[in-house]
C-alpha cells in the first residue's frame, strides 16, 4: 500500500539572516522538528536566497553527498581539493564530502540574488575519498520529460554520487501527464515543486510544496499550470 | 543550568576544531573534541560524558573497537554518528539522541 507525507511550502523551517533567506524542508541548523528529520536517505533540502556578493565562508563537511542546484543566479565555489568554479542556473554541482573537505560558497554576482537548492543525502559508504563534480545540463531535454540529472552510476546521465539515488528535473506544459517509475525496489520518491501547480498521485501541490511517496513502484504526474517545474528525488528509504 | 557533556571523536583536525567551537557555542552544551581514541578513552575515564559523537575518518574496525571500549568505560553513554562535519545537522542529531 502506498504511503505518503505532504510538506506544504508554508510549513517549512525558515531562517532569515538578512543576507540569507533560507527555507528548510527538513530539520537543519537551528530549525529542529522531530517530525521532519529525513525522508529515507534524503536529509537536507534547503531553498536558499542569497544576496549579491554574500555567501558562506570556508567551512568543513564530512560523510555527506551534497548536491547544489542553482535555480537563479550563479555560485562561486572554492574547496580544499583545489577546485574553483562558478555554477550557474542550468548546471548541477556535487560534492562527496567523505573523509572531509572544506569549501566556500558565495553569490558570484554582486547585484543579483542567488536562489539555490542544496540537498544532502546520507552516503551508502562512509569515509570515501572526497570528490567534486559539476555538469551543464541540457535544459531543453527536460521539456515534458523527467530528465535524469543524478544517479549512482559514473557512466549514466547526470552527475553521480555514493548512494542508490536518482534525481530528475522536469518542466511541463499545462495538462501534460506522465508516469515516473521508481528506479529501485525499496526506494521512495520525494517530489519538490520548483514552480507552478501539479498533481502527483492525486495530491495537488503548489510552488515549493514537497511530497514523499514510498511503497510504490511508480507515481502518476500531471501538470496543472503552464510553468510547472518539478524535482524528483528517488532515494533509498532504509538508512 | 544543566550542561550536557558531549565528546566528539574525529580524525580531521580542522573539523575537530570547528566542532569544538560549535559545541561550546551553546551554554547548555560542553564539548570536548579529540582526534585520537587514546584521548577519548582518557576523557571517558576521568569525566562524566552524556553523549559521544563519532565523526569523520573512523573506519569500521576502529569504530567497533571504539564502541566496545566506550561501553566498557561508560555503560549508559549514548553513541551516535555525526554526519556533515558542521553545524547543519548537529543540533538535530543531539536533540534526537537526548530525546
Task: List key phrases describing it.
heterodimer, A: 239 residues, mainly beta, Jelly Rolls, 2 domains, seven-stranded antiparallel sheet, 22 strands, 54% strand, globular, B: 99 residues, alpha/beta, Rossmann fold, four-stranded parallel sheet, 4 helices, 4 strands
How is this structure best described in words?
The complex is a heterodimer of chains A (239) and B (99). In chain A, 0% of the residues lie in helices and 54% in strands. Chain A has strands at residues 3-7, 13-16, 20-24, 42-50, 55-61, 65-72, 74-79, 84-88, 91-96, 101-107, 114-121, 131-136, 147-151, 159-160, 166-172, 177-181, 187-195, 198-200, 203-205, 210-214, 218-223, 228-236. In chain A, the strands form 4 sheets. A 7-stranded mixed sheet of chain A has the order 1-20-17-22-15-13-14, with no helix packed on it. In chain A, strands 2-3-4-11-6-9-12 form a 7-stranded antiparallel sheet, with no helix packed on it. The two termini of chain A are 21 Å apart. Chain A is built from no helices and 22 strands. Chain B is α/β, with parallel strands linked by helices and 99 residues long. Chain B has a single domain (4-98), classed as Rossmann fold (3-Layer(aba) Sandwich). Chain B has a 4-stranded parallel sheet with strand order 2-1-3-4, sandwiched between helices. In chain B, helix 2 runs parallel beside helix 3. The mean pLDDT of chain B is 94. The chains are: A mainly beta (239), B alpha/beta (99). The A-B interface holds A 27-30, 32, 34, 37, 43-44, 59-64, 97-100, 102, 120, 122, 126-127 and B 10-12, 14-15, 18, 55-60, 81, 83-89, 91-92, 95-96.
Amino acid at each position: 500500500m502506498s504511503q505518503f507525507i505532504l510538506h506544504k511550502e508554508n510549513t517549512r523551517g525558515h531562517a532569515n539572516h538578512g543576507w540569507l533567506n533560507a527555507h528548510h524542508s527538513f530539520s537543519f541548523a537551528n530549525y529542529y522538528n522531530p517530525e521532519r528529520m529525513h525522508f529515507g536517505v534524503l536529509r537536507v533540502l534547503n531553498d536558499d536566497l542569497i544576496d549579491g556578493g554574500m555567501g558562506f565562508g570556508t567551512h568543513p563537511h564530512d560523510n555527506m553527498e551534497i548536491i547544489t542546484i542553482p535555480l537563479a543566479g550563479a555560485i562561486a565555489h572554492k574547496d580544499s581539493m583545489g577546485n574553483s568554479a562558478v555554477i550557474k542556473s542550468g548546471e548541477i554541482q556535487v560534492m562527496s564530502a567523505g573523509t572531509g573537505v572544506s569549501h566556500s560558497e558565495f553569490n558570484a554576482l554582486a547585484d543579483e540574488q542567488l536562489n539555490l537548492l542544496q540537498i544532502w543525502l546520507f552516503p551508502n559508504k562512509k569515509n570515501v575519498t572526497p570528490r567534486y563534480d559539476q555538469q551543464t545540463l541540457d535544459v531543453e531535454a527536460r521539456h515534458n520529460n523527467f530528465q535524469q540529472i543524478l544517479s549512482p552510476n559514473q557512466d549514466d546521465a547526470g552527475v553521480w554520487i555514493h548512494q542508490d539515488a536518482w534525481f530528475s528535473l522536469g518542466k511541463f506544459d499545462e495538462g501534460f501527464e506522465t508516469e515516473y517509475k521508481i528506479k529501485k525496489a525499496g526506494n521512495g520518491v520525494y517530489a519538490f515543486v520548483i514552480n507552478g501547480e501539479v498533481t502527483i498521485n492525486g495530491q495537488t501541490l503548489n510552488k515549493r510544496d514537497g511530497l514523499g511517496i514510498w511503497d510504490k513502484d511508480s507515481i502518476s504526474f500531471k501538470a496543472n499550470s503552464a510553468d510547472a517545474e518539478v524535482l524528483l528525488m528517488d532515494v533509498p528509504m532504509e538508512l | 543550568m544543566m550542561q550536557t557533556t558531549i565528546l566528539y571523536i574525529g580524525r580531521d583536525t580542522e573539523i575537530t576544531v570547528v566542532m569544538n567551537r560549535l559545541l561550546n557555542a551553546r551554554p547548555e552544551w560542553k564539548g570536548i573534541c579529540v582526534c585520537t581514541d587514546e584521548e577519548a578513552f582518557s576523557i571517558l575515564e576521568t569525566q562524566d560524558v552524556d553523549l559521544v559523537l563519532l565523526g569523520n575518518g573512523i573506519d569500521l574496525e576502529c569504530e567497533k573497537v571504539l564502541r566496545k571500549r566506550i561501553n566498557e568505560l561508560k555503560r549508559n553513554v549514548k553513541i551516535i554518528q555525526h554526519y556533515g562535519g558542521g553545524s547543519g545537522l548537529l543540533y538535530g542529531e543531539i536533540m534526537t539522541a537526548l530525546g
